[in-house]
Amino acid sequence: MRAIRLNEVGGPEKLHVEDVPKPVPGPGEILVKIKRAAFNRRDVFITQGLYPGIKVPVTPGSDGCGEVAAHGAGVGNPPVGTPVVINPEIGWDDDPFTLTANASIVGMPTDGTFAEYVVVPAQNVYRKPALLSDDEAAAIPLGGMTAYRAAFTRGQLAKDDIVLIPGVGSGVQTFVLLYAVHAGARTIVTSGSDEKLARAKALGASEGINYKTDLDWHKSARKLSSGGPTLVVDCNGGEVLSRCLDIARYGARVAIYGGTNGDAKIRPYSIFWKHLSVLGSSMGSPADFAAMLKLFESGLKPVVDRVYPMDEVVAAAEHVLKGDQMGKVVLAIS
Ligand SMILES: NC(=O)c1ccc[n+]([C@@H]2O[C@H](COP(=O)([O-])OP(=O)(O)OC[C@H]3O[C@@H](n4cnc5c(N)ncnc54)[C@H](OP(=O)(O)O)[C@@H]3O)[C@@H](O)[C@H]2O)c1
Known about the structure:
Elements: E1 2-6, E2 15-19, E3 29-38, H1 41-47, E4 63-71, E5 83-86, E6 89-90, E7 104-105, E8 117-121, E9 125-127, H2 134-139, H3 141-154, E10 162-165, H4 171-183, E11 186-191, H5 194-202, E12 207-210, H6 217-224, E13 231-234, H7 238-247, E14 253-256, H8 268-273, E15 277-280, H9 286-297, E16 304-309, H10 313-322, E17 328-332
Parallel strand pairs: 10-11, 10-13, 11-12, 13-14, 14-15, 16-17
Antiparallel strand pairs: 1-2, 3-4, 3-8, 3-17, 4-5, 5-9, 6-7
NADP nicotinamide-adenine-dinucleotide phosphate (NAP) is lined by residues 40-42, 142-143, 146, 166-172, 190-193, 196, 211, 235-236, 240, 257-258, 260-261, 282-283, 320, 323.
């Protein structure tokens, strides 16, 4: 089969399409024939060596949709040919908070979805939401689940919230916007691009602030929300997080699932004086994944930025690296 391989770290240009043996599902596993895969920043971080526990060679890719191609011993469902999406979080059992000691994410260290076939545990295979195209279905797993858990399970997102979403161009943050709009909440988004702000408005964002031209964007967000957001969902960390904590409303929730810009200097006063709840969140439980799929079964659509052919993987990865995208970057595998 054809697979996108990373044989050494060194950036996106180290990704190559190669012929490798088709994997065989073991007991309790399913072989999925991949139609579409999608990028997460994690895949680019891995090419750069900026991820813990990197092992090469590997086929990257956490997001994928396709159809069931074969069953390992002890597995009978879903039947061969069923359209499916893959939950990339392996090893999260019934505990709502804890990953097991053997937890991992599809695409590192195990081979991932940037290939014509991938083997995953049977419990990670879910029926594809019928209303989504293959491109859309491939776009939702990792980002959609991470955003779902941060916004709903941890952040308790609800209709009356004023939600601050910094860096809405991020794949995951775009899902947070979709969910907040779907829930009927008011949303304030930031982006470094006027074009992305316009797209966010078209998706239903109430207010947009360009953090590159409005250097006091946090003060603008406080003003627009008449006293601060009631919910912040952040993946930027660094100074972005510090400012969010400083302007969050009394009693607000601040859900954090990433730290693209590194460590944050935090004023304890901002947290204790305002009774803020700071909530860590990462990936999602099987229950989060199933609940997230239900939203997309009811007609919600993810944002697909661009679809690249498999052979143009380097250009696709560089597009993600530059942060030019709004929503998800998809790879057409077959
Ligand atoms: N813990 C988890 O389970 C989990 C899961 C997925 C992702 N993550 C983490 O979440 C982060 C985002 O992931 P992703 O895949 O969504 O990345 P991505 O699509 O590459 O998003 C990058 C975006 O971050 C925004 N950004 C960067 N610097 C900013 C700043 N100073 N102020 C505001 N926004 C800024 C930019 O948005 P604009 O273009 O709009 O300016 C940029 O486009 C990464 O750190 C990733 O590792 C964690």
